[in-house]
Design goal:
The protein contains five helices and 47 strands. It is mainly β. It has a 19-stranded antiparallel beta sheet. Strands 3-2-5-6-9 form a five-stranded mixed beta sheet, with no helix packed on it. A hairpin with a 5-residue loop joins β22 (382-392) and β23. It is globular. The chain starts with a helix and ends in a 9-residue tail after the last strand. Mean pLDDT is 86; it is low at 1-26 and 632-653.
């Protein structure tokens, strides 16, 4: 298929959408049926939704011949609904709370009487969405402020039942490091982070890395974790940060948090001391200061919002020390400088733009056992997100939204000042990093220092058409990006010892510099929704085009590699895939209090530049080689009169270093993709029942199943399984024999890896099954809470490969994998005098342990 034709067609569609009369993007909706007191449906009823959250203040619809109405394109907020028809008393519904991405069903009953009369009703807002199959939790600002949790959007999203977090951030002790959040067996790079509907994931790790968004700019957070519609590509959690915009009244908010070492217990026990732990992990300092202000520059026309944030921590790291013997400190700081302008030039039109500049500094990237001067540091470089959006609202049946955004994430990891040396000086061994595998210590310079410079650009446009019980949404999302990466290591190697005795070295292909480009990541989607009596069907289809390339690059020689020049490699890869989506919701009791939901959805795996980068010949590579330092004095050994070839300035490599384990090391790509490799994808199945058990309280029981297809397997074209010879050795744990395989010495170092798509489901598959019971409550007087229990099981089969040593325990389906249980609760309650009470509980199953 000709991709350029599709792209031109998509652009033409976007232009067509842009010139059509339209209204604001459909974030939420209010729907229902209007009847008279006898139960007969009433067509022609004028229904108006009024809220300060709307650009036009009032948005309306007219009930159709079945008495149905639908008002789409509504922002989160508090609404007033008015139902009017000549010959009937006007009905008014006050205080309707509408969260993000929610369809609120509000039915009305009109009495015969004078049209000028009115009846006002104030009731509890609906808590069951009977028209969407998705599982969603909305966390309002009041709860974000009240609950005791680090003010980081990922940590806050992890409160949602069904999500899992990569690492706990207790009390903000890792305030400058965003953990990763997943749901229902998803991978971390499939988590989508949006600000007002604009995807802001960085390019690092295929989108696994997230910006450090300013918590003070968030008005509300929406977290969707299943049955996600065609407007979102990836199948992990979808986190939408809905920003504050200011208002007609000047207002502000301030948050200050602080803790230090006096607020924790000493966990250094005699048993740990006996095992060699001199100092445990400990908190020295944690702080967070966040101030925000917003208001009107011109009332009802132009608003501003600004926020400043400084957050940081200093943590003592186990068995790490400064030269004077004091504990090593993992010190980090993050600053946010955020500004937002919102302009309403006329009724029904709105322009908004924001800029969130972030500074991030980590003084010592320490882990236990690393000497402070061997730790890398991360000085600030350039890091920001920005976007501009246009919305319009001037004809009730149409909605449009268009925007442009940028996400920049650039950082470097450098040696401590004073330890960076020229790797070609005669005293190169003095600057090499030293790792003792027995003592678990690292000395001198540490890992190679690197530079990562990522720039993502995005364009999006969508249109929604709503008529009675029918809603159709179409859109385009276009992302491109560039990434530059550098790497340099002192001595171009790391020396490894065993209790002080030389063991091996890890050599690097440094200097390494690469440039890779994401030429297009395009999603064109169509999402429909139509209601047949009590049944609502949500079919969707998404067309995705992805193309990236390895750009031409040259780099000078290093200690273990010559000067290298590589040409451009286009279409690495070039994919075109479909992703159908289907969700259904059935209003079981007809009163919008009980819904049966189901969904079958395909999600293509998310990629940025991670596919191209793993085949870039100038990516950082390492090779572990034997090292026999006979005299324990680097550079003076008399083991052999031979010397290895020189690479620069007549300096010979150390003749004590053994041969390479990779015949292609640093010269040509040792890893390549099969030309027919396919994009991995997930199929997710969901079944759930939602029930309003009390006014404002809903309970959900749900089952989830996910299976991944087109899994990748790897083959070394230069070796076979038959090249490995088995032998047995005692298991150090119980003395039982273990079979281990040795590669034929003649095949040592022969590497030509091919990545291809698995065709044998019995040897390569991933299956997830999960079950949840959860609740959500919006109670009178502003109380809000949610929580529940979830249990799940992941089963991975990875028995396809070329090395029989990897076949041990490769089939988890034969291992009786246990169910793992999580419990969560979060809630807040306003108190007198402007106070509030918040509480959270998160209980996770322990991390799975690897078995060899």
């Amino acid at each position: 298929m000709n991709h350029s034709i599709l792209i031109r067609a998509a652009l033409a569609g976007c232009v067509a959408l842009a010139v059509m009369p339209a209204s604001v993007l459909a974030q939420s909706s209010i729907v229902g049926v209007v009847r008279d007191t006898s139960g007969a449906v009433l067509p022609g009823v004028n229904v108006e939704a009024e809220s300060p959250a709307l650009i036009e203040r009032v948005k309306g619809a007219v009930s159709d011949d079945q008495g149905r109405y639908a008002i789409a394109g509504l922002r989160p907020g508090i609404y007033r609904l008015t139902f009017g028809l000549q010959g009937f008393v006007t009905s008014v519904r006050n205080g309707l709370e509408l969260p993000a991405n929610f369809t609120s069903t509000v039915n009305a009953e009109l009495q015969l009487g004078d049209f000028a009369e009115s009846v006002t009703v104030t009731g509890v807002s609906p808590v069951v969405d009977v028209q969407n199959a998705q599982k969603q939790t909305v966390i309002p600002r009041a709860m974000l402020d009240a609950v005791p949790i680090p003010r980081m959007f990922v940590a806050e999203a992890a409160l949602v039942v069904g999500t899992k977090i990569s690492s706990q951030n207790v009390g903000g002790t890792r305030a400058a490091v965003n953990p990763r959040v997943t749901a229902h067996g998803s991978v971390t790079k499939d988590t989508t982070i949006e600000v007002d509907g604009m995807k802001m994931n960085t390019l690092v790790g295929g989108g696994d890395s997230h910006p450090d968004h300013n918590d003070g700019m968030i008005q509300e957070m929406s977290v969707r974790i299943s049955a996600i519609g065609a407007d979102v590509s990836a199948g992990g959690p979808h986190i939408n940060l809905i920003p504050r915009e200011g208002g007609n009244d000047l207002s502000g908010a301030t948050y200050v948090g602080y803790s230090n070492g006096a607020m924790q217990f000493d966990n250094l026990t005699p048993d740990l001391i006996q095992r060699g732990l001199a100092t445990p992990d400990a908190v020295k300092l944690v702080y967070d200061a966040n101030a925000s202000v917003g208001g009107a520059i011109r009332r009802d026309r132009l608003w501003f919002f600004g926020s400043l944030r400084q957050v940081g921590n200093e943590n003592e790291v186990a068995n790490s020390f400064y030269p004077d013997g004091s504990p090593g400190i993992y010190d980090q700081r993050v600053g946010n400088y955020t500004a937002r302008l919102t302009w309403q030039p006329s009724s029904g039109h709105k322009l908004s733009a924001y800029y969130d500049y972030q500074t991030k500094f980590v003084g010592h990237l320490l882990t236990p056992g690393i000497d402070v001067m061997a730790a890398l540091r991360r000085p600030p470089v350039i890091k920001y997100t920005t976007a501009a959006k246009w919305t319009s609202a001037f004809r009730g049946n149409f909605a449009i939204d268009a925007g442009y955004g940028i996400s920049v994430n650039s950082y470097t990891e450098k040696y401590q000042l004073g330890v960076e040396k020229d790797p070609f000086t005669p005293e190169w061994y003095a600057t090499a990093s030293r790792v003792d595998l027995v003592a678990a210590t690292t000395k001198v310079a540490g890992m190679p220092q690197t530079g990562t410079f990522n720039f993502r650009y995005m364009l999006m446009s969508s249109m929604t058409y709503v008529a009675g019980a029918h809603a159709l949404k179409a859109g385009l999302q276009w992302h491109i990006g560039n990434a530059w990466n550098t790497a340099q290591a002192n001595a171009d190697l790391t020396q490894r010892y065993r209790d002080g005795v030389p063991d091996s070295v890890i050599v690097y292909n440094t200097p390494a510099r690469r440039f890779d480009r994401m030429n297009k990541d395009i999603g064109i989607y169509l999402q429909d929704s139509f209601t047949l009596k009590r049944l609502t069907v949500n079919p969707g289809i998404r067309l995705e085009l992805f193309n990236s390339s390895i750009e031409a690059k040259s780099v000078e020689a290093g200690r273990f590699v010559p000067a290298r020049t590589f040409p451009k490699v286009p279409n690495t890869p070039d994919w075109l895939d479909l992703a159908p989506r289907l969700g259904i919701a059935y209003d079981l009791t007809g009163d919008a209090k009980t819904a049966i939901k189901a969904g079958v959805n395909k999600y293509n795996r998310n990629f940025t530049l991670d596919f191209a980068q793993r085949y870039d010949p100038l990516a950082l590579q390492s090779d572990t080689r034997n090292w026999s330092d006979c005299d324990y004095l680097p550079g003076t050994s008399t083991c052999s009169p031979l010397t290895l070839p020189t690479n620069r300035d007549g300096i010979a490599q150390n003749n004590e270093i053994g041969p390479s384990n990779n015949n292609r090391f640093g010269l040509t790509p040792a890893r390549n993709p099969d030309p027919n490799i396919k994009r991995p994808y997930d199929i997710e199945y969901t079944v759930a029942i939602d029930r309003q058990v009390l006014p404002g309280v809903a309970v959900t029981v749900a089952y989830y199943h996910r299976q991944t297809y087109n899994l990748e397997v790897q083959d070394n074209l230069l070796t076979e399984v038959s090249d490995y010879t088995p032998f047995q050795t005692p298991n150090p744990m119980d003395g039982q024999p273990i079979t281990i395989y040795n590669l034929n010495r003649a095949k040592q170092g022969l590497v030509d890896l091919l990545d291809l798509t698995s065709t044998d489901n019995s040897k390569s598959r991933f299956v997830y099954n999960g079950f949840e019971v959860s609740f959500a409550a919006r109670l009178p007087r502003g109380a809000s809470m949610f929580g529940g229990w979830s249990t799940d099981r992941n089963v991975t089969v990875s028995c396809a490969g070329y090395d029989p040593n990897t076949f041990r325990f490769c089939d988890q389906s034969a291992l009786n994998m246990p169910l793992r249980h999580d419990f969560k609760f979060a809630g807040s309650q306003p108190l007198p005098w402007g106070l509030s009470l918040g509480a959270t509980l998160q209980s996770y199953a322990g991390a799975m342990q690897a078995v060899n």
